[in-house]
Design a protein that fits this description.
Elements (H helix, E strand, L loop, with lengths): L15 H11 L3 E2 L2 E2 L1 H9 L10 H16 L3 H14 L4 H12 L5 H11 L3 E6 L5 E10 L2 E2 L2 E8 L16 E5 L3 E6 L11 E7 L3 H4 L6 E7 L2 E8 L2 H8 L6 E5 L1 H19 L9
Antiparallel strand pairs: 1-2, 3-4, 3-8, 4-6, 5-6, 6-7, 9-11, 9-12, 10-11
Helix pairs in contact: 3-4, 4-5
Length: about 290
């Protein structure tokens, strides 16, 4: 008995037919010696081949690319990646919600706006929502866009200081580090532009293999080997990022001065040590 077959007509862009034939040939779905498009579609419909979910490694790579696209102002491309992640990624609820918010509330082009203001020495006002969902407004007289770890950040010198209740570094009370994806609005304003952020000079000593392996940073004031120690003096506008950098070096890097910076690193190390002094219990397995 001859099985009845149905016929469909597809409207596809130029080049798609050839690509489908190539895919069919790669999957060994052939009509004679060529890839069979009808055979490929039938195999997919019958579940022989699946356009499966993204692997965890693919999701992680696409997330990183997505952040970079957003921070550099390539919003349409970022939205395309976001849609792919939502459609094909096997995502946990918090990540799925965050990505959906990116689609509905894109980051626009904050980085491009800030770059233009920096180039023109144009003061501006930033409307910002911090991690605690508090709405803040900063009057910016100087800004820069460093790349820290996995993303660009907006570092500013602002007039406002009331949101800082206590600080070990009063010299840096006008400095802030903001995430681009939490900016709500940017407005140019009048006034003078500053030449740079506030900073403190931090003395670092590097030992062991880092005496030769250390690579100078853009904000190093001096860098010299004294005996068996490499001494680096660096301008630091945000102590948080310095600590993030040097802790992985362990005993091969010491903060020598100023005392407030030295104390901050000691507090961080002591807090880590205290965690390992306390007994930990694993949560019950499900």
């Amino acid at each position: 008995m001859i099985r009845k077959k149905e016929t469909i007509t597809l409207s596809i862009p130029p080049g798609t037919k050839e690509r489908l034939e190539e895919i069919a040939a790669e999957l060994k779905v052939l009509w004679g010696d060529r890839g069979s498009i009808s055979g490929l579609l039938t195999a997919i419909a019958q579940g022989q081949f699946q356009v499966g979910p993204l692997t965890s490694a693919q999701v992680q790579a696409l997330q990183q690319a997505n952040r970079l696209l957003i921070d550099t102002g390539h919003i349409p491309q970022a939205q395309t990646l976001t849609s792919l992640l939502l459609d094909r990624g096997n995502l946990e609820a918090p990540l799925r919600l965050a990505l959906q918010q990116l689609v509905t509330h894109p980051n626009e082009v904050w980085r491009r706006q800030v770059e233009a203001h920096i180039q023109n020495r144009q003061p501006f006002r930033v409307f910002y929502q911090n991690a605690q969902d508090s709405d803040l407004v900063y009057t910016v007289r100087c800004a820069q866009l460093p790349f820290r770890e996995k993303r660009f950040y907006l570092e500013i010198w602002c007039e406002e200081t009331q949101d800082i209740k206590n600080t070990d570094f009063p010299e840096l009370i006008h400095n802030r580090c903001l995430r681009l994806d939490r900016i709500k609005e940017i407005q140019p304003i009048g006034g003078e532009w500053r030449n740079g952020l506030d900073f403190i000079e931090v003395y670092l000593h590097f030992y062991g293999g880092l005496v030769k392996a250390y690579e100078s940073k853009y904000n190093d004031i001096s860098n010299e080997v004294i005996g068996e120690v490499r001494q680096v003096v660096r301008r630091v506008s945000n102590p948080f990022w310095l600590i993030r950098e040097i802790l992985p070096y362990g005993k091969q890097c010491h903060v020598v001065a100023p005392q407030a910076m030295r104390d901050r690193v000691k507090e961080e190390i002591q807090a880590i040590y205290q965690h390992y002094q306390e007994p930990e219990t694993l949560p019950p397995s499900s």
